[in-house]
Structure formats: C-alpha cells, structure tokens
Hints:
CATH topology: Immunoglobulin-like
CATH architecture: Sandwich
Amino acid sequence: MRCNEMKKGQLLVCEDCGFEVQVVKECGEECDLGACCTGDISCCGKPMKLKE
C-alpha cells in the first residue's frame, strides 16, 4: 500500500515481525508523484498490509 492511498487512522502491519504504522496525517496533494508514493511501504523486505 502506498502512502497516498492511506487514510488517517489506518494501520499497516508487517506480517513477519508485527511492526505497525498508523497514519496520523494523510499524504497531501503535493506528494502525488513524490518518492514516497512510488512504491509500497515495506518492512522485512515485503510490502506491509492494512490491519483489519
């Protein structure tokens, strides 16, 4: 999942180590083509998954 796809309050979790990241502030419009939006947020070499 990319940062510009996430909404405030959502959690990402690493399925390998359990590390979690929560969105405190959504990605702004100025970020649409920035470096952080070009790939999935990852941990342990794998894309992190949305925690449900």
